[in-house]
Amino acid sequence: MADLTRDDVAHLAGLARIDLSEAELDRMVGELGVILESVATVQQAPTDGVEPMSHPMPLVNVTRPDVVRPSLSPDAALAGAPDAEQQRFSVPRILDEE
Amino acid sequence: MTTDLTRATAAELADLLTAGSVSSREVTRALLDRTAAVDGAVHSYLHVDEEGALAAADAVDRRRAAGEGLHALAGVPIAVKDVMATQGLPTTCGSRILEGWVPPYDATLVARLREAGMPILGKTNMDEFAMGSSTEHSAYGPSRNPWDLDRIPGGSGGGSSSVVASFQAPLAIGTDTGGSIRQPAAVTGTVGTKPTYGGVSRYGLVALASSLDQAGPCTRTVLDAALLHEVIGGHDPMDSTSIDAPVPPVVEAARRADVSGMRIGIVKELTGEGFQPGVQARFDEAVQHLVDAGAEVVEVSCPSFSYALAAYYLILPSEASSNLAKFDAMRYGLRVSPDGVDAPSAEQVMAATRDAGFGDEVKRRIILGTYALSSGYYDAYYGSAQKVRRLIADDFTRAFGSADVLVTPTAPTTAFRLGDKLDDPMAMYLNDIATIPANLAGIPGLSLPSGLADEDGLPAGFQVLAPAMADDRLYSVGAALEARLTAAWGGPLLDRAPEMDEVTR
After folding, report:
1. Any bridge partners for residue B84, and if so which?
2. Does B356 fall in a domain?
């Protein structure tokens, strides 16, 4: 349960797309272990039959009429892009080569 | 009325501006000069927009001269936390991953400030993506507490608390996910409000935990907080969680400052043990002031609060791990290629960028959230935390059955020294023990100064909590207490803060 291994943290970092260094992994195993042990106390709360609460108030779907309204220009939308080409975001290759 | 424009309250400045005794340019200039003199030492700002602020001031001065009807706070300058999108002004969230990013749009809240004619002085420092209680997790270095430059100004909004405490701005915007407006207010001797969840639009607020985040005012007086609350509050169709109802009568409540017959609930679980003696002593005195003003004290019990911190540190990382997935190096922000990889894939670039662009605390929380949401652990962690959240909301509902407001010390201690808790994440998290329950339940809270702790002569904070959409009660209690305390002290608490040595940048 609250006994995270170094391999677990490496796996989670991979899922979260964070390329942790070996030194970071070493440090984080210990820190996360302490935090997990503490937050695991939620399992001791008397929660039998309690309805989970995801949000402070009832959520209702919000819609608007399907009409065109002003929005960002392509230039504005691309202004912060690390790389852009032909009015598109230019990105590294997305497929493996093999 | 004070003549030093940097020490005047927003309400005083509004009167002076309306009367034509000063121009917005004069006020803005005075505050920018103050920043040039002291912010090298305090480091409240990540970015100062001298040109933009003066242009906005001139524009409002021209409109006033032309006899236009203006908003009450027109011409009163404000600082904005760097987590709010500001068109044309950098927005970094205290992170390297957004270094140099300039949003192409304004947050709704920012647009409302501009519409009201309030010059934006700059963007204030914060813990990276609002994760922290000290600003030490800012990628750009910590802000400092004007009461003692070796101490923290609170977090995550330590830039906004210190900017008002050091008289660089009468008003600032903060955001509060677990206490990031109220705890910084407490440790700097200032005022801060977290409005009811949904009371202020989150459109353009870079999300940390969407079900907890709420923006609000950071000020030096309760009335100023109410005035700013009224500007930024109210329904926004761009935020699906925005409450479609009028802003509660917060300014009227602050002006009336009436607590006669009000039932003040002391939360048994958030008093005494675990609170610094000087903080507790100022709290007890403040309660007595409220009794003297005609309020009635009741004790309430909120037994589930003992699980609040644990639930919060599961819910927040879970939501944050999802919200921060958008920092993928593709559309905006940093892009870093991994070392020694020819033609890296998008996935490899994303992982290298997030390693280089995120600080330790952000990485910790993303990984914790990823764990809490992963299959096989979801029910035990995130699921249990959501049930605890319900228990906490139920505790509040019961407590508000016998009390109109609840009161607690805002933070367990006064400002600690920079570096003291940096290597111990759990110790850092405990600062938010009294502020977190309000975010989990979505109710409003306000912190105001209760005095100086005997042990260290540093400010302590008094927190008022009210039911959802009863934000006006915060201001009734806050203003009544502030009036009595200010009279007892013979002036505002901040008058006792040390004069800042003028340090050039």
Report:
1. B205
2. no
Residue B267: in which H helix or E strand, if any? strand B263-267
CA distance B453 to B414: 7
Least CB-CB distance to B351: which of A18, A38, A83?
A: A18
State mean pLDDT over B32-46: 97
β-pair partners for B448: B462
Q: Is the pLDDT of residue B250 over 70?
A: yes
**Residue B489 domain flag:** yes
Residue A96 in this model has a pLDDT that exceeds 80: no
ipTM of the complex: 0.95
Task: With beta carbons less than 8 A apart as the criterion, state whether B350 and B329 touch.
Answer: yes
**pLDDT, chain B, mean:** 96
Catalytic residues of B: 81, 156, 180
Parent domain of B250:
10-304+390-496
Which residues of chain B does A24 touch, with a Cβ-Cβ cutoff of 8 Å?
Answer: 355, 360, 363
Chain B residue numbers touching A77 (CB-CB < 8 A): 104
From B83, B71, B79, select the one nearest B28 (Cα to Cα): B79
Helix (H, G, I), strand (E, B) or coil at B298: strand
Pick from B157, B464, B425, B451: nearest CA to B313: B425
Omega of the bond leading into B24 within 30 degrees of 0 (cis) = no
N- to C-terminal Cα distance for chain A? Answer: 38
Q: Helix, strand or coil for residue B222? A: helix
Answer yes or no: are the C-beta atoms of B145 and B152 closer than 8 Å.
yes
Whether residue B390 and residue A38 make contact (CB cut-off 8 A), yes or no, is: no
User: CA-CA distances (angstroms) from residue B409 to B261, B274, B333, B352?
Assistant: 22, 11, 39, 43
- Each domain of chain A, given as residue ranges in start order, spans 6-44
Structural domain tally of chain B?
1
Q: Does the beta carbon of A76 lie under 8 angstroms from any beta carbon of chain B?
A: yes
Q: For the residues B431-459, what does the mean pLDDT come to?
A: 97
- Return the half-sphere exposure (C-beta side, CA atoms, 13 A cut-off) of residue B397: 9
